Amino acid sequence: MIADIHIGNNLYGALAYNQEKIDAGLGRILETNRVFVPSDGQFSVGDCMRDFERAMPSQVTTTRGIIHISLNPHPEDKLTDGQLADIGWEYMERLGFGDQPYMIFKHEDIDRQHLHIVSTRVRSDGSLISDKKNYEKSKKITDDLEQKYGLHPKDKKQGEAWQLSPVDASRSDLKKQVANVVKPLATMYKFQSLGEYRALLSLYNIGVEKVEGNNQGHKYTGLVYSALDAEGNRVGKPLKSSLFEKTYGIESLERTMKESGEEIKAKSIAADTRKLVSASLKDSRTGSEFRADLQRKGLDLVLRYGNGGRLFGITFINHNSRTVLNGSALGKEFSANALSSRFADFAQGNNHREELPSVSSTSAKETLQPSVQHEPDDKPTTVKGYSGDDSPVGSLLSVLTPETNQHDDNQPMPKKKKKKKRRYGRQV
């Protein structure tokens, strides 16, 4: 079982994400602690937010007060809702959140059952629950839970994304394929820019573009996802982000990138990646050796070439810490200029791709090392007076319209009459 922990300050976003799953029939509430829901199980973000806020002193201010955890049993683990609720409850107790308000949700949106847990790190006395050594504590808990419930143990190949497959544009279910990759990756990995997010998605043959334009006098900015072919070119029909719920739109993505940047800086996460990359760089004579050594350590790299074949960007994806970092962020010696100067096979432009082994969807499931894509630059596509032609830009904008019915993150949902829900005496 794999645990993925995210810390931030967007309580509304975390609860709304789970509400969308429930509304779509892809999720349900399994357990609550110090949070009340109606007896019919109907979920109100506004009511739940008020319960969370009551447990936190109003004078406390922090940008890292919310914790959002996903617990992912192996796909072959078959557990009842009661067992899943017990696992979530015991995990929170042992992690130090037994007295905190929290909600345990079951999701079934990516062909396997898993849990999402939302809680707060702020105690009733205003103190903050420490997040130091969360990884070590969480690993010990999940190891014990695996033994207690007879679950499949985690292994080197499992990771958080063992169920993900690269998109195959020749299939008819393109939207479902893209959703099955975008939804978990956007919450599992830490990245600070659209370019880093694009590099991560490219491992699974998905591209993403930021598009700005004007529709009947209204300016808008949005995201469009596309399937990519073996050469990194867009194929198939572009898909606007609203098709995958607002959680994967530009505003939510920008919040995620900001929170990721704060977490990466606060925990010095980049230092771990820098250490691994530096060791591989020291022992490698060619770019191919460098890449192979990184993959053995659980890292992928994405190279970005310009039209002239010049390497202008490099991104490292650390699957161990689930962090995406541009080479320049690690240091000058890891930048595109430095590595293209050091490795001749990196400086050869698109010819470099011929050296890469192709990876099928089946092997990608097993290895988590999908083929590397060459990324375009990070500039948004801007169109004025779009007339609906058949150009690539027109193809993107033809599916992008201002997204309506978006909730303001600062506006709670209408309040409903609350009725206390108890389960086995665990709520207080």
Automatic annotation (TrEMBL):
Residues 414-428 have a biased composition (Basic residues). This is MobA/VirD2-like nuclease domain-containing protein. Residues 353-428 are annotated as: Disordered. Residues 62-151 form the MobA/VirD2-like nuclease domain. Residues 358-372 have a biased composition (Polar residues). It comes from bioreactor metagenome.
